[in-house]
Structure prediction request, 232 residues.
Amino acid sequence: MKKTQNNSANSPKEAENPFAFSDKVEYFMENHRKTMIGIASGVVVAIFATWGYYEGYKIPREQKAAELMAMPLADFQKGKYQESLHGEEDFYGLAYIADQYKGTPSGDVARYAAGISALQMDKVEDALQYLEGLTLQDNLLNSILHLTLGDIYLDQAQKSKSIDAYKTAVKSAKETDLTAMALKKLGVAYEVFGAYKDALTCYEEISMDYPNSPEARDIDKYIAKAQTLQNN
Prediction:
């Protein structure tokens, strides 16, 4: 079948970087990227299992979308991103489902998973076509969506967009275990763009409110650095 949308396969742009991203961001981003993809994959499949089918029986269009999702999500979970995005001989891919069933819960999840698949194949501009403007019903997945967008924007040195995306991620996380990760990413973005006071606020919130989170393990180092930069 292999029906897809006509998305371009543009290579990601090399962002001009006046803030020395290689020193401030690259290590942090690379060490969180695999974690983010792993969380996203698991959450997508879990959400599909819990409400994709059950809600699907209430609305025929949603039911069909949910049924079509099974095979491409299986490929997505295995890391077969080309196949999950474009489909194989006997099933449609995520791109087709996202296009044909837009506005349904499963269609929106397909759109998100399509964006992650494109991102995993280093097709950043294609990923943005799927991910930008998308809001997901599930708060956890919506938070992960905006963390992903924030990472892309930060890598492209887009100040306002990266900070706004991370703020949305913090809000959507709703004080879950993901909140500390979102706060740390927001703090790093603030720091990269010279807003050291705001960065310090994020780091201190992690220290005070999420002391048992993985992000809190080295947060004192981030706090000390932000304090030093703020006082210079």
Residues 24-137 form one domain. The CA atoms of residues 98 and 111 lie 5 Å apart. Residues 26-56 form the longest helix (31 residues).
